[in-house]
Amino acid sequence: MKRIGVFTSGGDAPGMNACVRAVVRAGVYHGLEVYGIMRGYSGMIKGEFVRMDSASVSNTVQRGGTILKSARSQKFMTKEGRQQAFDQLVNAGIEGLIAIGGNGTFTGASIFEHEFGIPTVGAPGTIDNDLYGTDYTIGYDTAVNTALEAIDKIRDTADSHDRCFFVEVMGRDSGYIAIPCAIGGGAEIVMVPETAMSVEAVIETLQNSWTRSKTSFIVIVAEGEEEGNVHNVAKRVKEAIPQLDTRVTIVGHIQRGGSPTAADRLLASQLGIAAVEGLMNGMKNVMAGIVDRKLMYTPFDDTINKRKVINQSFMRMVEILSV
Amino acid sequence: MKRIGVFTSGGDAPGMNACVRAVVRAGVYHGLEVYGIMRGYSGMIKGEFVRMDSASVSNTVQRGGTILKSARSQKFMTKEGRQQAFDQLVNAGIEGLIAIGGNGTFTGASIFEHEFGIPTVGAPGTIDNDLYGTDYTIGYDTAVNTALEAIDKIRDTADSHDRCFFVEVMGRDSGYIAIPCAIGGGAEIVMVPETAMSVEAVIETLQNSWTRSKTSFIVIVAEGEEEGNVHNVAKRVKEAIPQLDTRVTIVGHIQRGGSPTAADRLLASQLGIAAVEGLMNGMKNVMAGIVDRKLMYTPFDDTINKRKVINQSFMRMVEILSV
Amino acid sequence: MKRIGVFTSGGDAPGMNACVRAVVRAGVYHGLEVYGIMRGYSGMIKGEFVRMDSASVSNTVQRGGTILKSARSQKFMTKEGRQQAFDQLVNAGIEGLIAIGGNGTFTGASIFEHEFGIPTVGAPGTIDNDLYGTDYTIGYDTAVNTALEAIDKIRDTADSHDRCFFVEVMGRDSGYIAIPCAIGGGAEIVMVPETAMSVEAVIETLQNSWTRSKTSFIVIVAEGEEEGNVHNVAKRVKEAIPQLDTRVTIVGHIQRGGSPTAADRLLASQLGIAAVEGLMNGMKNVMAGIVDRKLMYTPFDDTINKRKVINQSFMRMVEILSV
Amino acid sequence: MKRIGVFTSGGDAPGMNACVRAVVRAGVYHGLEVYGIMRGYSGMIKGEFVRMDSASVSNTVQRGGTILKSARSQKFMTKEGRQQAFDQLVNAGIEGLIAIGGNGTFTGASIFEHEFGIPTVGAPGTIDNDLYGTDYTIGYDTAVNTALEAIDKIRDTADSHDRCFFVEVMGRDSGYIAIPCAIGGGAEIVMVPETAMSVEAVIETLQNSWTRSKTSFIVIVAEGEEEGNVHNVAKRVKEAIPQLDTRVTIVGHIQRGGSPTAADRLLASQLGIAAVEGLMNGMKNVMAGIVDRKLMYTPFDDTINKRKVINQSFMRMVEILSV
Questions:
Q1: pLDDT (tens digit per residue) in D192-250
Q2: Are B233 and B148 contained in the same domain?
């Protein structure tokens, strides 16, 4: 293999640039030519390729977002679109791909490889941490810290006014972001998809605490929470406990941005190098990940179909710590 | 004067603790006894007074929120409530007050003084910076920096995905927070109450930029904006320019919390000391402020009735800088 | 067991308060009485015990330093001192101890238990991450992020002036802090005790890079580095390559302070709870730790005598990433 | 005037990029061609000119350092060097200059104009805030906040261990950085060139506080302090009060880096625009500044020869607040 391409795809995540940098530098180190593919599969179809050398990723390790940009591509979901992508890659002499993204990205890469034989090795780039095959995804640690800093600020005002704040954090269908935010943010309650806590239970817990003369509260609500969105939860609580001074905050898209933490830079660097070396060693349709501090390559089939289970003991911790 | 009380009232603001600390230490320095009054007028009515010495404000200068807590008091709006407050103060021997808050707070203090003769000197504690008689209010600089950090993170993801973000920042009826956020955050457009920019004008500007192949945008919307809330603005823009990938973020209550900036700690310290020294010198119904780097005491009547005008040249800067 | 004591000892670390909070809340949750022992063994000897309830640790999870304070105690190294400590504990009815600290702390606890039979369970509180029996110590993640933020700022000025900065980070006798700082901070070289890189090798690497027209450099030096301190390293490099514009920065004690990261708050919370539950289950002379995401109790003998080895692949990463 | 050049010179300061961006965008707005001159006078002599359009400064407003780089030039101090610079400018058709820097930069620009008639308008870019003609310099607010964040972290560890920290902050020959750090950082003492406080006075103050059972202290020392450097001060204090557990921290070069604060971005934007508009209006040998919130152009002769005096009341505040 002489020439490889690297792209970012799906929702952006802090550390994607650190991963791109690692891919480029590892490529250079091993004598490969590396091309950046702009805007994921969309740019692949259009042939938006940029030659990258060591200097092209200088001073990017600390930057949020992705210098390669990201986009969703309807066209790549069609055979015709993938044919165009293949033609562009062949034309540019690109023989293998590094995909930084999540399961949507890997599904596309897998189909593409089966049809056209271009191998892809993936790196897990998503703030949601919901990928099987790695303990942590690139961007997750930063997103949690960003959310936690927001919660720290909210606690200042919650305490000052004896208020009850309902704070929505990201995380798609899992509580991976919500739970450490609850534990580290001193929240009384955390509502995550995994436990399907009812609003009634939330009300009961708040009422009990109120009786014990606790007067300010933080309730963390994961965005994928089944009981409906954070505004509905707050509304129903207010109806049940009118004396509570309730407020809602949605941390939102700021969780996707910002300079990556040390852990995310380290992970992104490890996995970027590992992805290149995996590709050089003939791997395909696998994602590089770290499991129990060891490098692992997990088939895309598994990252897509298997579900990573959240540590149940964390739920118990929220209960103990809010005693 | 031998014994004074200090309280925080209205919305909390970063730097309130630094101001309380300055009041306490200046009081001690000048041989006064200082009492903290909990929860503003509400605690005054209930006699929630706490003796404060120098050590009681150690390690508070950097803390967000207010250790004296804040609350709104319906009761203080009644003569009966104010009578109770007066009785409590007399009972505790408190002869003068330092009020850290905004115009609602000062209005109450003014009425109270006219009725019962207890003098109050105010310090401007609000993130909104909408008080006549001081160039900056305590908490404003921190709130702007907090909002700007959020916008920096949002720009990462806006750029990565070629999106148009509508970001709502606080500020009640003025653009004081929104404008530096727009200038410092590299926003293309800022919608503030002062200029009453129409959504049509926003659409036109975005369309022009889009034609010039600019693909990611940030529009800052002040919360008091007349054209309706940020969700409505985003919706109307999306209808007019369907190819724009729009998103909404409300920075929200995190702007009230967090450790105060250097400028806010300095201002809070200056005005806390000035308020005590003003009270000692027989002042009442005035707010300590800094105008053109000079200490000024402005009558509550003026802080309440006069309107501080925003620098018009700042609006022009947004236009120039987004060229 | 009815009554337990908790103390922090040795160098302070961010997250110690989160751990104390977890100990107190877990104690309350399980029906124990918890006493805070001020200033480590020094306060134990003097009987500086403070009853702690749930509210006493409110709003501490995010605070740096330790509310229980820390101190070194020469006296506890004597039999007489330990006898006094034992008398104080017996007098106060304290039957078991939670020690948050490092190997010095655990050595003392171990001797104390052998002599007087008071059981101690430890939690690893040190920024150095040099404790066998846990993948990460409480405070390590925060210290790395603090150092990295400093390095990010230094890179701004290094790049602007084409300078070579030598940055000393903490870490006693290991490169645990230095290595992620080098990887995440985009450093060209890292000097750590584990590899004993010579100054000659540093000079050679810098000369090679210089020839390749690289003009700004960051060299991370671990404080325990054998080749002597960072000033000497910088001086010898400057003598060898006079055209380099060299500067030295020592990150220093700021690495010990600051609000703990999400990872440190989570770890501190887990281990605080685990320490209490271990003690309740009859354990003694063990440290609670997390190894490969699983809770482990490791005998003090092992934490003291066994050496945790740094991941060698990280050294190779620095080489690849600075290509 | 059709074509102008912009450069940064002297020590780098946060906000320089925001200022360059404002210069470029204001130039574009007013129909000028703008060239970036790399590495200050050094690049001017070598003709390192880069055409800048609006997009070339996208996403730079928040970045520390300077994208135009900075360097000292011995050669520009010679007539021959300046002749070469003039030839390069004439060759490139550059008719006017915007210099972002301090008095060294302005002195050079002034001589250059007298000899060769190329007009320069300056913007004050230095963290030291020691320039007459503007209340604040670009970078000052950020540097103070960076130092203050370091001091906040140090206070955590100072309090935990009952230590006395001597913290050196930057500021050349003035206390502009040191004083707000002392007020905002809760320091007991501040040593600045302006007051020439003796080490004996420091010792006396610390001894008095120690007697009042205060046990942890922060002493801020400005780098230009006459009594010698921070290590000497600490050493002499330790000799006089051996029971003090003293430590030294030098905040150092991190004060030059980092993302600029809101205030610095706003100031940099205002002055960048003002500098361009001044140049267009025929000004030369003047620095744009903000005095009492109003735009002012001050002759280089005055910025160089007049001394801005620090607010004496701030010194008194340190005394009151550490009571």
A1: 988 889 999 999 999 998 887 788 999 999 997 767 789 999 999 999 999 999 999 99
A2: yes
- Interface predicted TM-score (ipTM): 0.96
Same domain, C54 and C180: no
Distance CA A296, CA B318 (A): 50
pLDDT at D226: 67
CATH of the domain at C189: 3.40.50.460
Which of A128, A130, A141, A264 is flagged as catalytic? Answer: A128
Contact list in A for residue C18 (CB cut-off 8 A) is: 184
Contacts of C257 in chain D (CB under 8 A): 152-157
Using an 8 Å CB-CB cutoff, list chain D residues near C256: 153, 156-157
Two tokens at D72? 């000292």
Residue A101 forms beta bridges with which residues?
Answer: A124
Q: CATH no. for residue C289? A: 3.40.50.450
| Distance of alpha carbon A306 from alpha carbon A286, whole angstroms | 14
In a domain, residue D244? The reply is yes
Contact across the interface for A250 and B250, Cβ inside 8 Å: yes
Domain match, B24 and B89 both: yes
The tally of domains found in chain B comes to: 2
D258–C12 CB contact, under 8 Å: no
Compute φ and ψ for D249, nearest 5 degrees.
-135, 130
Smallest Cα distance from D301 to chain B, Å: 25
Average pLDDT in chain B: 95
The closest of C140, C53, C141, C68 to C98, measured between CA atoms, is C68
Cα separation of A149 and A180, whole Å?
12
D26 closest CA partner among D270, D237, D315: D270
Phi, psi of C10, rounded to the nearest 5 degrees: 80, -165
Please, are residues A295 and C251 in contact by the beta-carbon 8 Å criterion? no
A6, β-bridge pairs: A36, A98
pLDDT of residue B194: 87
Q: Are residues A223 and A268 in the same domain?
A: no
Which residue of chain C is at minimal alpha-carbon distance from D142? Answer: C153
Whether residue C319 lies inside any domain: the answer is no
Rounded CA separation B151/B280 (Å): 44
List of residues 6+ apart from B303 with CB closer than 8 A? B103, B106, B122, B124, B131, B132, B133, B287
Active-site entry in D12, D128, D130, D141: D128
Q: How far away is chain C from the Cα of D74, in angstroms, using its nearest Cα?
A: 15
Tell me whether residue A159 is one of the annotated catalytic residues: no
Which residues of chain D register pLDDT less than 50?
A: none
Of B12, B53, B87, B128, the catalytic one is B128
Other Cβ atoms less than 10 A from the Cβ of B138: the count is: 32
Q: Would you say residue A209 has pLDDT above 90? A: no
Domain holding B205, by residue range, is: 141-256
Residue C110 included in any domain: yes
Residue among D69, D124, D148 at smallest CA distance from D267: D124
- What is the per-residue pLDDT across A283-303, written as a single tens digit (0 to 9) for each? 999 999 999 999 999 999 999
Q: Please answer yes or no on whether B265 and D184 come within 8 Å at the CB atom.
A: yes
Tokens, residue A253: 């898209």
Asked if residue D110 and residue D161 are part of one domain, the reply reads: no
Residues of D in contact with C160 (CB under 8 A): 8, 12, 16, 65-66, 69-70
| Residue D127 marked as a ligand binder | yes
Contact A161 B247 (CB under 8 A): no
* Longest CA pairwise span in chain B (Å): 71
Q: Tens digit of pLDDT for each residue in A87-121?
A: 999 999 999 999 999 999 999 999 999 999 999 99
User: Each residue of A244-256: pLDDT tens digit?
Assistant: 999 999 999 999 9
In a domain, C282, yes or no: yes
Query: D132 and D268 share a domain?
Result: yes
One domain, residues B151 and B265: no
Contact B165 A70 (CB under 8 A): no
- A72 and A210, same structural domain? no
